[in-house]
Write a structure and sequence with these properties.
The complex is a heterodimer of chains A (398) and B (311). Chain A is mainly alpha-helical and 398 residues long. Chain A has helices spanning 2-13, 16-37, 57-61, 63-71, 87-96, 125-158, 166-173, 193-216, 224-230, 236-265, 274-297, 303-320, 327-339, 343-346, 348-361, 366-392; strands at residues 49-54, 79-84, 101-105, 111-114. Chain A folds into two domains: 2-40 and 192-392, no CATH class; 49-177, D-Maltodextrin-Binding Protein, domain 2, CATH 3.40.190. Chain B is an alpha/beta fold. In chain B, strands 6-7-8-3-9-10 form a six-stranded mixed beta sheet, sandwiched between helices. Chain B has a four-stranded antiparallel beta sheet with strand order 2-1-4-5, covered by helices on one side. A four-stranded antiparallel beta sheet of chain B has the order 12-13-11-14, with helices on both faces. The chains are: A mainly alpha (398), B alpha/beta (311).
Chain lengths: 398, 311
């Protein structure tokens, strides 16, 4: 078994087709993606939100103006303030798209926020991409202030002495006072990472070519050398085990190289769970080995070339439904996954894509574990179908 | 002791009967020649013995034990040099020999020595780092042989190992096979080259259409056929009526004239040459060179299997 393992690894490493599809192609695609998405990717920080304030007397006397001033200072300012003389001028800036909102304080010191509708002309295109987020920031800022001010007034009315303890006031105003913080997502959401995860799915499926070739080389009908192997003093099962172990290990190695390229050269975030990614790669490679052995066991007329053609076609088609080929296919993949959730568990490319995405997106490891288990289960199913096909094949030659 | 004993072997491919109650027994230390036209069942018989093919009826015993697909203990004692070159294109010469040897011998140190010996045996020392596609036809055949014999098998099947090989390589292969026999191996050898079989085989079987036609030593086989001698006469021309007279002679089996040579195949008789020359003299034909030769294995083969072309 060890010698079959060694020979398989050597043979596959010297098969140009296997190297191209299972190693070079994913790296090439990742490089293409890197250039394509370079303009879209951000570092996860938010630029200061441009806001106009009506700097009249009420503004100057309000506490809210001090809050805004503190938020507008420093290197990581949350808002960029433009002071105007009256509401009309502020509105004009808003309509022109110069600012994303305006603040005005009434006589009672209560701030009022004015924002433009998302459909407004000034907030379309490149500008509109950040407008939704900026608008939310301004709304949160205003409502938080109003809530906090109301809370302080209530405390002052019911227990004036409590205001003498600044720490108690700070606790009362903090988020932790009345709510429990639960993190659902792990990383900073970045849409482009999904394409790289889909690429990992494609790479995993391309890796199935390795086990297909390894199995096809043992089928007694495949070649004279294969027939010679089948009359040897080592059982076919042991030879098959060695060949599959070799092809699986090589798949893991190729996928790890592709992963390292995506992680460290393209600099794609895997939420700091690189070790778990390697576990995921091992599971993906197991599924790919199963698929490859199934195709390699089919009694195809064209032999390994026909098997390679089938796997290449299958990989390219299934990658559509993992959203690999751009925004339209990503939307299609999402739509299909929403309409037929089970499809995400049936399509190996999508499954591997979601495996990595679950590591990136969810704090909990349960979604990752479920997908890893699905990969292994698929591998077992593929092997179960491949085994009788392989066993039934006998040499037949006049 | 019989190393190989095949009894009543029947193998069908659909309606085609490839082996028809085929019997075979080979003694230890023999080089056994298996002859037959294309499609006669030689390779099928070998593949059945190796359990590469299933068969419909009959029994196969190797080394005195019943052979079965899972008898890996017996398989480890067998070597096979197939008709087609059966090596792995991606591995070098040395890696190929080592790999096929590893399917029989696990111990790495012992294997290394065996591989070195096999390389020396086929004289491929200068090509150990070459991949098969870089080798000539003759070198490939030698590699094919090395892959089949490196593990020092006790029983070796050579299925037409000298096809497309130059005379020098052929001689080397034949003397190598005799060397293996001298070291104690039993060899089953199939070929279409009669002179090779005559040269190295101690027992010869001629088979056709899945059946055994004749078996014996070279001399025994020659005695089994009608041809006693072959008379060849060089002539510038030969009228058809003279050829007919020659064919009508008492012990003549057939006579043919082609390319300035008259060939007369006769049964064994002391007066054949005198009779042939008498007919030519009566027709006032002056012969050039004249010679008579005993039947060859080729004559035996053609007489037993017929002269019509096969697929």
């Amino acid at each position: 078994m060890r010698s079959t393992f060694k020979a398989t690894v050597k043979m596959l490493l010297r098969t140009p087709g296997a190297i191209v599809w299972a190693l070079a192609f994913p790296i090439l695609m990742a490089t293409l993606f890197m250039f394509m998405f370079s303009s879209m990717r951000t570092d996860g920080t938010v630029d200061a939100v441009p806001v106009a304030v009506v700097a009249d007397g009420a503004w100057e006397e309000s506490t809210f103006s001090q809050v805004i001033e503190s938020l507008a200072s420093g290197d990581d300012a949350l808002v960029a303030v433009r002071e105007v003389d009256d509401a009309a001028e502020a509105r004009s800036l808003l309509e022109e798209g110069e600012v994303d909102g305006t603040f005005e304080v009434d006589e009672a010191g209560v701030p009022h926020l004015t924002v433009a509708p998302e459909s407004s002309d000034a907030h379309q295109g490149e500008r509109g991409r950040s407008y939704g987020i900026n608008r939310s920031i301004l709304e949160t800022l205003a409502s938080s202030y109003v809530q906090s001010a109301a809370l302080i007034e209530e405390v002052a009315a019911s227990d004036p002495a409590a205001l003498a303890d600044p720490a108690a006031v700070a606790r009362a105003l903090s988020l932790e006072a009345g709510s429990e913080r639960v993190s659902l997502t792990r990383g900073t959401p970045d849409e482009t990472v999904r394409y790289y995860y889909a690429l990992m799915g494609m790479a995993a499926l391309f890796a199935s070519q390795l086990s297909m070739l390894a199995v096809a080389n043992i089928r007694p009908t495949a070649s004279a050398a294969a027939a010679r192997r089948s009359i040897a003093g080592v059982s076919r099962v042991r030879q098959l085990a060695g060949a599959l172990a070799g092809s699986w290990l090589l798949s893991v190695a190729f996928l790890t190289i592709a992963f390292c390229y995506v992680r460290f050269v393209v600099n794609i975030d895997f939420a700091g769970r690189e070790v778990l990614c390697l576990v995921g790669i091992a599971g993906s490679a197991f599924m790919a080995a199963g698929l490859g052995s199934l195709v390699g066991s089919l009694p195809l007329h064209g032999g390994a070339s026909a098997g390679s053609g089938i796997l290449t076609g299958l990989t390219c088609v299934l990658s559509i439904f993992a959203g690999l080929y751009g925004e339209p296919t990503m939307k299609l993949a999402d739509a299909i996954a929403r309409a037929v959730p089970v499809s995400a568990w049936i399509n190996p490319t999508k499954l591997v894509c979601d495996l990595f995405h679950s590591l990136y997106f969810y704090e909990s490891l349960a979604p990752f574990a479920a997908r890893l288990a699905a990969c292994i289960a698929w591998g077992v199913v593929f092997f179960a179908f491949a085994a009788p096909l392989f066993r039934r094949q006998r040499y037949a030659h006049l | 002791m019989d190393i190989v004993r095949v009894t009543g072997l029947v193998k069908r491919y659909g309606d085609l009967l490839a082996l028809d109650h085929f019997d075979l027994s080979i003694k230890q230390g023999e080089i056994f020649g298996l002859l037959g036209p294309n499609g006669s069942g030689k390779t099928t018989a070998i593949n059945c013995m190796l359990q590469l093919l299933t068969y419909d009826r009959g029994s196969i015993e190797l080394f005195g034990e019943a052979m079965a697909p899972t008898r890996y203990d017996l398989k480890r004692r067998i070597g096979m040099v197939p008709q087609q070159v059966a090596v792995l294109e991606e591995l070098t010469v040395r890696e190929n020999i080592d790999f096929f040897c590893s399917l029989y011998v696990r111990d790495r140190a012992r294997r290394r020595a065996l591989v070195d010996e096999a390389i020396e045996f086929v004289d491929l020392g200068d090509y150990v780092r070459f991949r098969p596609k870089k080798l000539s036809g003759g070198l490939l055949r030698r590699l094919n042989i090395a892959c089949g014999i490196a593990h020092k098998p006790e029983l070796i099947f050579f299925d037409e190992p000298t096809v497309a090989v130059d005379p020098q390589s052929r001689n080397a292969i034949l003397s190598g096979i005799q060397g293996l026999r001298d070291e104690g191996a039993t060899v089953v050898y199939t070929s279409h080259y009669m002179e090779e079989v005559e040269q190295i085989c101690s027992q010869i079987m001629i088979m056709d259409r899945g059946r055994v036609l004749a078996q014996g030593t070279n001399e025994e086989l020659k005695r089994m056929v009608s041809t006693g001698e072959k008379i060849v006469v060089e002539l510038s021309e030969l009228p058809a009526r003279v050829l007919e007279r020659l064919r009508a002679l008492p012990h003549v089996l057939d006579a043919a004239f082609a390319d300035g040579e008259l060939t007369v195949r006769c049964e064994a008789s002391p007066h054949n040459l005198v009779d042939v020359l008498g007919v030519l003299g009566a027709a006032r034909i002056v012969p050039g060179r004249v010679w008579a030769e005993p039947p060859t294995l080729n004559d035996v083969f053609l007489e037993l299997t017929g002269r019509e072309l096969r697929d």
